[in-house]
Amino acid sequence: MDIPKAYKIDALIHQNTYLIDGQLKHWNGEMVEVYSTISSTSEYKPTLLGTVPNLSEKEALEALDSACSAYANGQGLWPTMKVEDRIACMEKFVSQMKTKRDEVVKLLMWEIGKTLADSQKEFDRTVDYIYDTIEEYKQIDRDSAKFEKYDGVYAHIRRGPLGVVLCLGPYNYPLNETFCLLIPALIMGNTAIFKPAKYGVLLIAPLMEAFENSFPKGVVNVIFGRGRVLATPIMASGKIDMLALIGNSTSANALQESHPRKNRLRLVLGLEAKNPAIILPDADLDLTITECISGTLSFNG
Cα(first)–Cα(last) distance of the chain, in Å? Predict the structure, then answer.
């Protein structure tokens, strides 16, 4: 198979670190191989891309303790930080992220099977989303400086962080949709535990150092491994204030059930997304077929 030199996998990527308490910690335990369904040989064979840590419950709970300590019941450095300082941290992160564009795009192509154009769009759209989120946060801060009047009552409304967030993204848009959960949570002052999806996991590797040096310790914790092994004990602790998940309802229900204080658990969920296509009698069938194929194949990864 003739693969352009710029997009060949010349060396395996061994992501042997994970991020807890502001430090990239080296993992000496079991590693999981990451394969691409794209073959790079004349006879079809999945391509080995690299390996990632297969962390245990112990590391999951360490990440939870780190996030809880950083939040400190709303009194930690991050939730009490000035708006301009949190924005500066986010701008530092996205600036470093942009330098990794080629690496992330290449891994999106191999891991998820996206085209070059779709991979570039996902990366660029994610960068734009971060900048848009920063601008929206500035507007929220400006609005919160005003008093509102309703029925003769004046109110001063300020938005604040909610606590510790467990962030679990999908594999079809492992960068964009995951960051659509993670970035707003962070910029509002929450701390987060982030587990990449099973597929699209290696593309987080180029961004690990940016996470490490852009945010105060414990604000972002990145762990790798099986969802049941890591997410279940984190939820069972009762210390998670918000579950942010894009996936399926079975996983969402199971994670909610494992939380001992469901009445206090806030949810941000995007589930199934098996959206029907309703075709009316007067539809342009040529256009309809094109759009349906795009919807089922391109937009769903």
Answer: 23
Closest CA to 30 of 54, 50, 60, 57: 54
Q: What CA–CA distances, in Å, run from 127 to 50, 91, 117, 145, 299?
A: 26, 10, 15, 28, 18
Whether the pLDDT of residue 301 is over 60: the answer is no
Indicate the pairing of strand 46-53 with strand 31-39.
Answer: antiparallel
Backbone angles phi, psi at 98, to 5 degrees: -65, -25
Average pLDDT over residues 266-276: 81
Q: Please tell me which residue, 247 or 218, carries the higher pLDDT value.
A: 218
Name the average pLDDT for the chain: 91
Q: How many CB atoms lie within 10 A of CB 84?
A: 9
Task: Indicate the residue type of 301.
Answer: G
Question: Sorting pLDDT into bands at 50, 70 and 90, what band is 289?
Answer: very high
User: What pTM was estimated for this model as a whole?
Assistant: 0.88
Q: Which domains does the chain possess? A: 19-26+57-145+157-272 (3.40.605.10)
